[in-house]
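Researcher: For the annotation table, I need structure tokens for Olfactory receptor. Please keep the output clean. Sequence:
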Amino acid sequence: MAKQNHTDSSDFILMDFSFQSEHQHLLGLLFLSMYLLTVLGNLLIVLLISSDVHLLQTPMYFFLKHLSLADVGFASVTVPKMLQNLLFQVRTISYSGCLMQMHFYMTFANTDNYLLAVMAYDRYMAICHPLLYATRMSHKRCLLLVTICWLLASLNSVLYTLIMFPLSFCSSKKIPQFFCEFFPLLRLACSDTSVIETISLIESYVDVLGPFILIVISYACIFCTILKSPIHKRGTKGFSTCGSHLGVVTLFYGTLCWVYLQPNSRSPEQNMISSLMYTMVTPMLNPFIYTLRNMEIKAALKRFIGRTKTAGLFQFFLCSSKSAFL
């Protein structure tokens, strides 16, 4: 019995991609480039919103900054370990490391989920109730909403992590995924987990469907308000402000459904490739979706580049003057 307990068990083994070694290295370099692009793109949005005091100090960009931070954490929890597996063939992960990865993966994923709902509510207030927007979406209210998103996501992850502690694991330690995910890890347990799996499955559906329903209701009200508006320009502006958020929502929930709606109908290799869309591609594309058609972020980027060049020239002339004086 003691050998079955997780405290005495060996490390878990993560599944790798079924490619030849030279192809795995090329794939690892590709994923490394995508990961760096994800981190740099999202951190650039955080830097622009934090440094710009003109256009980007609104609730929408405040929420976007936290969404970008969650995307950086989301990608950083899973991708580095996957790169280690591909480039250095280190497929093992300790029990504590596995639980830690699962915990933070669920934290950042749920934070993304909640923030998208909050951003939809923000767009609803801005378009459907513009006269109340300043009071309903004050900085104090926005800070409270963001805090609730992070807190709920953390508590939800703690709940799932605590479920794992009393479980015992059998001799099979191979997880059919490139990162530690709750349900694949739960299925490796020796003890009866049917009740836990059913309750967790119901809770996870509620956890995802709740914010999604709020988003659908918000945009239904937004579209009704826009269509009823007699001013054509107001409708065009309303659709344009929602376009980026709708693109991110579609990408997030589209890949989520693709991964989890029919997991039993696909092979483990197909599930891994599907999970790549959810864990890597979506966080990488979010900065591009928000910047390609957003004139305010483009303007902030130009100002930031201008300030950087000015600061660089100032330091250059300062160093030149000191050198000449000396």
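Researcher: And a one-line annotation?
Model: The chain has one domain: 11-292.
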